[in-house]
Amino acid sequence: MAYLLGLDISTTGAKALIIDERGAVVASHTSPQPISTPKPLWSEQNPSDWWDGIVASIRAALSASGISGDAIRAIGLTGQMHGLVLMDAAGSVLRPSILWNDQRTQAQCDEITQRVGGERLIQLTGNRALTGFTAPKIVWVRENEPEVYARGAHMLLPKDYIRYKLTGEYVMDISEASGTLLLDVANRRWSSDVLDALEIPAAWMPKLCEGSEVSGVISAEAAALTGLKAGTPVVGGGGDQAAGAVGVGAVDPGVVSLVVGTSGVVFAPLSQYSYEPEGRLHAFGHAVPGRWHFMGVTLSAAGSLQWYHDTLGHGQSFDELLAPAADVPAGSDGLIFLPYLSGERTPHPDPLARGAFIGLTTRHTQAHMTRAVLEGVAFSLKDCFNLMANANLPANLEIRASGGGAKSRLWKQIIADVLNATLMTTNSTEGAAYGAALLAAVGAGVFPDVKSATSAAIKTSDAVTPSANVAAYAAAYPNYRALYPALKDIFTRL
Length: 494
What we know:
Blueprint: E1 3-9, E2 13-20, E3 25-32, E4 44-45, H1 47-65, E5 72-79, E6 85-87, E7 97-98, H2 106-116, H3 118-125, H4 134-144, H5 146-149, E8 154-156, H6 158-167, E9 171-173, H7 174-178, E10 183-184, E11 189-190, H8 192-198, E12 207-209, E13 214-217, H9 220-226, E14 233-235, E15 238-239, H10 240-247, E16 255-260, E17 264-270, E18 282-285, E19 292-298, H11 302-312, H12 318-322, E20 336-338, E21 356-358, H13 366-388, E22 398-402, H14 409-419, E23 423-426, H15 432-443, H16 450-457, E24 460-464, H17 470-493
Parallel strand pairs: 1-5, 5-15, 9-12, 16-22, 22-23
Antiparallel strand pairs: 1-2, 2-3, 4-7, 6-8, 10-11, 13-14, 16-17, 17-19, 18-19, 20-21, 23-24
Helix pairs in contact: 1-6, 2-3, 2-4, 10-15, 11-13, 13-14, 14-17, 15-16
């Protein structure tokens, strides 16, 4: 029996997941990760903590599984995207990593847009300049820490720093590189136009590879630390959303991944590069060779429900809070919730957007407010799907739902009704690490391609089909859509 190892560097933990060649989970271990906020809007982590966490998790997963490192046939990598790891010529990290959720770089985003040109930037990179991306972080270091910038020689992202520690190679996969704002996404290569405009050295850029391509092998030093076998292949892997999409089988057009986590993510694979002209959708390369994807993001999906539960739940469990909402009519008797508690990304890239309950009257109860929260998030996800409809996606989409919010049957039914589409659940629950392990299986030759791997390992079940409430939500949605334009100026003044 061959075993595959998926490694995931998230903001909160360093995870090691072992699966067998049939896709069954054998063992998993996560080591918590500290995070630092040295100033308002800043968010940083030390790459050395990631490495220590991954070493501990690998050893713990091997121990729990009862197998030796020699049995691991290949390793796949995934993790939080966009975080800048700046290194010198000797491979030493020069400063803590500036993370995806760091908000210090708005001035640099404006500068990038001015230098490259807004329309040209979206055409080349598939995206607007947003504070989460890597390029603004590089420009920020140059402008605010020139002595650090002057020593720079290599730029990596979090999971690719783990690759470097495992293999000694400076390599990044296409899906992760897409999130730097420095990639020519259509041609899957670094953009000389953007690098030149921003005066970022091309020599800093790591070698590019596909998600299922072998990028290096475990070094003797890494083998001694982790218990893995020296020479074991390490494949390209993918960013957390791309690897997560592989983990639910969203690899070809027609199968869409819908993640209802803290944020909500709609991930639609594409057979060729396309971009939304206003940059309201992310357009990235997929971790699957020859594939791209659109991605829409609702910043506060299950996060909205978490806030509502913690603030207005009065000590109730989630089940106790949600149960009465099932008896409230679709549309919550005219009550609408805007889920912009952390600003918004799609279709309104506006950090100043705010959440709101609109239409409250004395007849509304806690159950109405609860259902309105679920419906508001569903409407926000519909915004993402509507933008993607212009990209010639297949008419009959298969939507595979995952994340904590997808565990609620009521919420899945509301989303199915709002989208007028069937939602499916998959047997894989390990997220991005599972997708990384499947990519490793392809790189090791266990499967000939990613589609074969996902077809063998992933099964769907628990179909939630649209109900008679479709018409009620179709009538309510235009009111939801009208609220952001009506309130935008007020949000800015607030």
